[in-house]
Predict the structure.
Amino acid sequence: MPEGAPDLGTMNVVVCVKQIPDPADPGALDPTTKTLKRDGKLILDESDSYGVEMALQLVAAAGGGEVSLVSMAPNNEVSGIRTALAMGAASAILVSDPALKGTDALGTAKVLAAAIARKSPDLVIAATESSDGYTGTVPAQIAEILGLPSVTFAKSVAIEGGVAKVQRQTEAGYDEVECPLPALVSVTAGVVEPRYPSFKGIMAAKSKPVDMLTVADLGIDAGRVGWAGGGQEIVDIVAAPARQAGEKFEDDGTAHERIIAFLENLKIL
Amino acid sequence: MGLSKVWVFGEAADGKVATITLEILAKARELSDDVTVIYGGGDAPAIAATLGAHGATSVLATGDLGGGLLGVAVASALAAVIAAGDGPAAILLGTTQDGRDVAGRLSVKIDAPVITNVVDLELAGDKIVGTEPVFGGVTNVKTTFTTDKPQIVLVRPKSFAAEPSGGAPAAVGVLAVPDLGATGGAKVTSRFVEEATGPKLDEAAVVVSGGRGLGESGNYALIETLAKLLKAAPGASRAIVDAGWVPYSYQVGQTGKVVKPSVYLAAGISGATQHLVGMKGSKNIIAINKDGEAPIFGVADLGIVGDVHKVLPKLIEALQARG
């Protein structure tokens, strides 16, 4: 078995989770600071609920171990983390620091990787991309920082004898990939059906440990994160050309005729 | 003006260059006279003519990776070239599975940022300014680099038009992959191709997509039947892909395919921002949804407020009657 592989029967998994503004109320960019306005309450990114569920199932299948969470959010925000704890994760690390304002994907990966390293997990799970920022680079960045192999875009994950067996989505279909642990896997939405937190789970989550850390606690120089550490800057925010809505009809039983006329007019028919 | 040297991450399957690579090449050759395609694979000679015809002067290839994943191998190889002082001004990659892996790993290796989800880019001096749509495409953010390191940019599909420029075949060179250590541990053991009949989703002139409004997975047959009659590709919203009704390869949207057909017909799709990003570049949009307030109607040229279970069967019947 490779070095660092789990003892038979236990499996420790860290899941990266993001707490985002409710997509039903996506907010806006602050024109002065050029960062996302984060006024309202944050929720667990739905994309991350799949990773949490996957982790819980893998630990259960291994017969023991622990699912813990790492997250980075402003203002010690924990409401989204509590949702994942209510699903069954045991504990969390939250990195919250004013110095992180404006941090890009690479800076985020540096922070999360430093937090993950404290747990020395057998497996790190992340979503392929967040629902609000969707850069989709953070999982590979974390793996590179931690010196781990990674399999991104997993649509199925199983662990057998210290090896992750993953079906990885491709343009044409999927690849079967085998990857020795420790490793990082990013999972797609739909990989598993996330459980709803039970009432008992919600109550238990209130007392589960959430370790609040700053950038300095992780030994990261504040100058390497935030706006200053990013190496990029927003130069303009403009409204995209809007698409005009056309005609709208209530179906009176003849809608199909309107569609056919529309297609004939375009010479599709 | 222009950049001294630009790298384009090239992707291909079965000797055929991916459309996204040709799209990026069309833009890259505007930025620089020295465009090198970076390729992870053993069949570079088979694609050198196509790459050259689209503006690449050379192609650097790793050779066969023996089942090793492409992202970490290519990123490590590029970092070594950059460390040796032969790096480019910019590296352009497609927003694909492997493109994101390469960009993410490389950004750490050279400690440089990635500008992602770019749909347009321009030069300001020797700096790239990328345009990225946010909030489902209602707002565009323009971002530029403030470092002097190679500028890593992830470009979304369908952002530029692929057009040959008539260049000679690209010269094939070797991209040496260093020892990857533990990071190279993942190996592909087998590959599965999901057979699809009919036109490809991201190339079809007509796309017919279904969503939650279809009610249950069995009703997706209505979409497939209609697609066949219109010689269209069938598509899907993320909701029904997540629910397991159809494979991921059917998904239109931010996380799936970006499509720009002549006609896009959305049946039972409400129009979440994640879906709109993938289809609102279509020339003509028809939407059928029972909720008259659904956001999809905000982009539809022809909006039908009605029940897909009534409209689709009648439409299918009428098309079948035409023969």
Summary: The longest helix of chain A spans residues 46-62. Residues 129 and 135 of chain A are 6 Å apart (CA to CA). The two ends of chain A are 62 Å apart (CA to CA). Residues 11-230 of chain A form a domain with the Rossmann fold fold (CATH 3.40.50.620).
